[in-house]
Amino acid sequence: MDRYGEELFKGSAKYYSRYRPLYPASLIRFLIGRFALDGTGRMLDLGCGTGQLALRFSDWFEQIVGIDTEPEMIDEAKRLSAEIRSENIEWYIGDIKSYRIEDKNPFRFAVIAKAFHWMDRAMVLEILYDMVSSGGGIAIIDHYSPNKKVLPWQKKVDEVVKYWYGEERRAGNTTYSHPTISHQKIIEHSKFDLEVHQLPAHEKIWTIDMIIGNIYSTSYGKKRFLGDHACLFEEQLREELLALNDEGIFKERIETSVKLALK
Fold it and tell me: What pTM does this model have?
């Protein structure tokens, strides 16, 4: 994340924990079965954000470590874990390089969910290869689907976002560019063995408040970018979306891709 600076998700944590879509139960069941999780060993969630995915594995490991570079994300993760009285999760502000210096104990399993594209992927896999136990692995998870049909309401959201935020996707102190080499290729060229799984799509129902909150949870759509115009942005987006559906309810089929790096 170095190229994007230290404020990539600054100001996003409260929206991230409340409005980002949760991963489906089918993903949790798949990973539990694939890695024969039984409540022993350690798990790493790298790029953990506000920690909701890590928390769903709290009964399946002796210890979980969640790592994120954004202090506000870790603060929110601590708040959420305290709410459910989860006591076996350590939250760490930093990156995998700094964490490795402090703790060299192995992990049975690691997950990187919708965060791998921000990282120096080859370097991260090289470091993790020495940190993951034999027979373990890493699950790299995302919803990226380049051939997915964009729905009318999503087109309208994109139009309004570009009008208020600009054509280029801001990311920290620069603009975002999607990796030209796929996650799959990066894993294939690492020491890990690759396994690819596509889980069945699940339906997500959005309200307008959820759509707005999700935009504010992103690196490019932070509310502070709008300054004094946030209310005008929200007003226009509500008006445009209600013109498409006067109930303000929208549906989406979300696909989940899981790329396993196995040791």
Answer: 0.91
Contact 34, 260 (CB under 8 A): yes
Between the two ends of the chain, the Cα-to-Cα distance in Å is 25
Give me the amino acid identity at 256: T
Distance CA 212, CA 9 (A): 16
pLDDT tens figures, 163-173: 999 987 766 55
Q: How many CA atoms lie within 13 A of 77 on its CB side?
A: 29
Which one-letter DSSP state was computed for residue 241?
H
CA angle 23, 184, 57 (to 5 degrees): 30
Residue 225: Cβ-neighbour burial (10 angstroms; 0-12, 13-18, 19+): middle
| Residue 53 and residue 111 in contact, taking contact as beta carbons nearer than 8 Å | yes
Select from 143, 141, 116, 154 the least CA-distant residue to 255: 143
How do beta strands 89-93 and 63-68 pair?
parallel
CA 29, 9, 217: angle at the middle one, nearest 5? 60
Strand partners, 110: 44, 138
Closest by CA position to 22, among listed 214, 241, 222, 169: 214
- Residues ≥6 apart with Cβ < 8 Å to 231: none
* Mean pLDDT of the 238-255 span: 97
